[in-house]
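Lecture 7 notes: from sequence to structure.
We start with the chain below.
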Amino acid sequence: MSKLSINPYSVTHDELTGLPNSFLFYDRLNTNIAIAERSTTRFSILYIEFKNIELMAKKYGKGISDALLIRITERLNDSLREADTVARLDEYAFGVIITHLVNKNAIDSLVYRIYKILSLPYQVNGDSLSVKVSIGMSVYPDNGMNATLLTSYATTHALNYD
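Predicted structure tokens for the same chain:
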């Protein structure tokens, strides 16, 4: 009888992008909630969804959409601090935990800057591809005191900034 070998990294990270997956995202979110409760600090989560990548996958092939997702990951990582968490939640959606939130204006400015960066065209295999981005945001404790309420608020309040 053979034993199954499970790579612990693959349990908590997305295979394509190397980002934390939804399992690790929610673990970190719950950790941030516990820390914020004890220290009375605030933090924010973002729900970032890309509306037209599935159509690109059908038009150009899965390889192109995968390359596009990797470029998106690079831009997200370059846009945020190392202390923040960027995760791939599902095929075309990402979650971000922004720690040590100073004030609402700062987070609004950051969200708009991320939107502008992610909306710039991507060069993939000689093609210039544009994505449709929507970003939802929630702030702990203003929009919820637990992971379910925070993520629900962020996903239902996603906006296009154009």
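Points to note: The first strand starts at residue 43 and ends at 50. The chain has six helices and six strands.
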